[in-house]
Design goal:
The chain has 271 residues and is of the alpha/beta class. The chain has two domains: 162 residues, Rossmann fold, CATH 3.40.50.720; 92 residues, ProC C-terminal domain-like fold, CATH 1.10.3730.10. It has an eight-stranded mixed beta sheet. Strand 5, helix 5 and strand 6 form a beta-alpha-beta unit. Helix 7 crosses helix 12 and helix 8 packs across helix 9. The longest helix is centred in the last third of the chain and has 21 residues.
């Protein structure tokens, strides 16, 4: 089995650990590095995984997953670099860190070390995420398939060139927040027109779950599904017309553009 070291036991790191275990990965082949003792104890108790230091976790791992905050990447790499990464075991580094390019890792690791950058999103916490892979210069097909297999345990996997990662960040990385905001607005509107908050929440949440399932399973596009619900002169047509009048499409375009530009700014750090 593939030995995986997860460096960072935050929400994303924990989601990956949980998904791997649920997918049948052996607990003996997982190790976590977490510097906060209370959090380390929590993870060990919840998943029975070995929790240790970064250097110890990276030693002998096939896949080293960096799942720390951007400001902590440099320190994590410093510890990883104390390990013999030129041994017989071929190793691969996977970064789940927003805004850190593959080149940042490549210049700090041994020459030719394969690095895959990943843009995850928070629905991986419930096994419904989408992880977008961007391979570094030294990544081979086998490396990419290995990472695909690891991350498929927490949702779907898509591969793009790294030049598209800022757009990916804006669309899927930040995307759950847009849906939560729409849900929040719909719930508030329902309450404003007399529904209890509990009833409005139940209606909105299940409507979003059902609509997402239709998009995923029907084989029809969003445009086709929206048109099928929009009867001429009906209630949906009136609502959609008002949303269009208020510039819904432009608002989303501008929002995603802003997120894309901010992602590029965050990633423009010295190497």
């Amino acid at each position: 089995m593939t030995r995986i070291a997860v460096i960072g036991g935050g929400r994303i790191g924990e989601a990956l650990i949980s998904g791997l275990l649920q997918a049948g990965h052996a607990v003996r082949d997982l190790v976590v590095a977490e510097s906060y003792s209370a959090r380390a104890e929590e993870l060990a108790a919840a998943y029975s995984v070995r929790v240790t230091t970064t250097a110890d976790a990276a030693e002998g791992a096939d896949v080293i997953v960096i799942a720390v905050k951007p400001d902590d990447v440099e320190d994590a790499l410093t510890e990883v670099s104390t390990v013999d990464l030129d041994g017989e075991r071929e190793q691969l580094l996977v970064s789940l860190v927003t805004g850190v390019a593959t080149s940042f890792y490549e210049v700090r690791l041994p020459a030719g070390f394969p690095v895959v950058r990943v843009m995850p999103n928070t629905p991986m916490l419930v096994g419904e995420g989408v992880s977008v892979l961007a391979p570094g210069r030294h990544v081979k097909k086998g490396h990419l398939e290995l990472v695909r297999g690891v991350l498929s345990s927490v949702g779907k996997v898509v591969v793009v060139p790294e030049s598209q990662i800022d757009t990916v960040t804006a669309v899927s990385g930040s995307g759950p927040a847009y849906f939560f905001l729409v849900a929040e607005a719909m719930i508030d509107a329902g309450v404003g027109f007399g529904l209890t908050r509990a009833t409005a929440s139940e209606l909105v949440i299940q409507t979003m779950v059902g609509a997402a399932a239709m998009l995923d399973q029907s084989g029809e596009s969003a445009t086709e599904l929206r048109a099928a619900v929009t009867s001429p002169g009906g209630t949906t047509a009136a609502a959609v017309r008002q949303l269009e009048r208020n510039g819904l499409r432009t608002a989303f375009f501008d929002a995603i553009e802003s997120a894309k530009l901010r992602s590029a700014e965050l990633g423009a750090t010295p190497e």
